[in-house]
Amino acid sequence: MSRCRGCDAELKVTFLDLGLMPLANSYLRTAEETAGECRFPLHAFVCEGCLLVQLAHNVAPEDIFTDYAYFSSYSESWVAHARAFVEGAIGRFGLDGSSRVVEVASNDGYLLQHFRDRGVPVLGIEPAVNVASVARSAGIPTEISFFGTTTASQLAADGLVADILVGNNVTAHVPDLHDFIEGMRILLGPEGVVSLEVPHLLRLIERVQFDTIYHEHFSYLSLVALEPVVVAHGLRVFDVEELPTHGGSLRLFLCHAGSDRLTTEAVAALRRTERAAGLHDLATYLEFAPLAERCRDGLRSFLARCQARGETVVAYGAAAKGVTFLNYAEVTADEIAYVVDRSHEKRGRLVPGVHLPICAPSEILRTRPDVLLILPWNLREEIMTQMSEVRSWGGRFATAVPEICEVW
Known about the structure:
The chain is an alpha/beta fold. The chain is built from 14 helices and 17 strands. The protein has helices at residues 61-65, 76-93, 112-117, 129-137, 149-157, 177-187, 201-206, 223-232, 265-276, 282-286, 288-308, 320-328, 362-367, 380-386, and strands at residues 13-21, 40-46, 53-55, 101-104, 122-125, 142-143, 162-168, 188-199, 219-220, 235-243, 249-256, 313-316, 339-340, 358-359, 371-374, 396-399, 405-407. The protein is globular and about 65 Å long. The mean pLDDT is 94.
């Protein structure tokens, strides 16, 4: 029996079981590779003790992140989001040339570049060698390592102290939450600030975002589940912001428990919001699986109607959430001709599991499909703007989460 990574209780209660799934970012290079493709259980549980939603089966992080196909800078809206955070943090926390900003899972330098350009010293910590190399080539000093107590202790022993320690969309990716948070404590200066951005479990449930469940995401986070882990390591949440990114996220600001920083009313307000939404009640979690099944069935019915009308459907975005959805719905090449993506790392490869070809967005202009199904629904407006020419031949856009929505 697996045990909770938050409180060590036995995991018994299913949140959503998606069956055997491929690794979402393990894109195949050739058709021959499909024969040896590995699939792993994708079964999310909710802990009866601390209500942390999590995967019970751990795929080794080295199998997921060492050669990674996700580059943050390909999303214009995400880079703009990072720039806005930097401007706010510099002003709020008085950062200058004497400060140090460290980002965990710094990817290709999408965020740290903005601190660097403002004269604030930076260090990235990124485990994917191919992604870290891009950051280094852009002038972002980057430590190639998985973050935890070992890495934090080594850096601290070298005299490095973080005034701001950033972790955007990485907390869910770590199999050992306690080791990760303890590493934050070790590296954080006495009056330093940790800024963590995490997709909010409350929005995942409300908006049926089951497609954000994949092997990279070991945990699905809420304040009610994460705060006890933070407190156990001598840190506290002193402020929180609710963000629209990734379908609804939290930005949690942490400091040492003994810091002089005042805790804002926003923290208490979020506690009340989560309680009112039922996140303290196990029954809330048990209602989710039927909603995901209905969403999957809605996509299957939509594709069947398109086939009956002789319409061609193409998907935009070979992102991890799209891989989960396409595999859960068991989509075939007869239903979706191909997938396009802006990432050069993904083009020419095959989508894991369903093996649809991944092409450049220009292929849409050449083949003129009837429907462009946007898989990364959180970037819907950005993608519709980029691909506005689809409307010129009468094509239309569609999303499938939380239900099928067609935009003419």
